[in-house]
Amino acid sequence: MTAKLNVVPFVSVDSMMKLVLTVGVEKFLTELAGYIEEDFLRWESFDKTPRIASHSSEGVIELMPTSDGKMYGFKYVNGHPKNTREGLQTVTAFGVLADVGSGYPMLLTEMTILTALRTGATSALAAKYLAPEGARTMAIIGNGAQSEFQALAFKSLLGIDKLRLYDLDGSASRKCAKNLAGMGFDITICSSGHEAVEGAEIITTVTADKQYATILTDNMVGSGVHINAVGGDCPGKTELHRDILLRSDIFVEYPPQTRIEGEIQQLAADHPVTELWQVMTDKAAGRKDAKQITLFDSVGFATEDFSALRYVRDQLRATGLYEELDLLADPDEPRDLFGMLLRAEQAVAKPQMAT
């Protein structure tokens, strides 16, 4: 990458798509999960705070910052379920990685596609520690923009090869099945959530509506399953019946954020949960027996985006899939910013005088 301090590598949507395809989607997900795992294993090195959210009746806009003391990263992301009715994405995002020592940004990148990839990678990484051993079948309830990424991440990391799809909008399930055709899955499109969970060892819920919803009722969840609850990710937005939570061992990313935004907002503030990093570092148990119901109450956390930013930056030198963005002022004398403006004025004036 460029060494010019005033130029910042920028990864556009087009470059991100080319990067993912150059690496290969499943390899990208697997390697990204490795970066996320590395950062969970050094969890205590990070600054941690619940994301800063601005809520409205239309949706939410959030900032997700963190730092490991050497690099600082943040993501801007929105969640507007109504957008699909207007031909817009429910979630859009961009992110920045910066050097803590100088404060200079090191990377600016789209994160709409990257967030979908990191969400799938995080879900599958958690399931590596929590899902039943030898699981092959996953139900995906909610077949929108995230569903294919979830499926491919679970295939890449866990070997899931049987999918049972359900969405209130049948065209979404058909879209998902078509997109995943030829990628090594045995796919069944189901007519109800009850049908989708039949025989599934892993249940992924990933719906978009910003409301308290009951995507899974208690009678749909048998012993021994792993639930990957992705869709409930802001106050007032859940997918699981409360009784399911009371029967499950619950695993979360960062409790202060999940208690506000996740499924556990339905429970008392002191309801016991286990942090995922504790399982990964052997400080707490994950799956303990074949009958246990495990629930990953996933809301997404800033360290995962930090990991994704690190991963993308590490791919740029070999691929060259970025643009050079003239983002930072670079005066000849650091204290003479106004002089830089005057010299620019003179540079503009010279061609005019020549004419």
Automatic annotation (TrEMBL):
Gene3D superfamilies: NAD(P)-binding Rossmann-like Domain, ornithine cyclodeaminase, domain 1. InterPro entries: NAD(P)-bd_dom_sf, ODC_Mu_crystall, ODC_N. It comes from the Bacteria. It holds the Pfam family OCD_Mu_crystall. Belongs to the ornithine cyclodeaminase/mu-crystallin family. This is Ornithine cyclodeaminase.
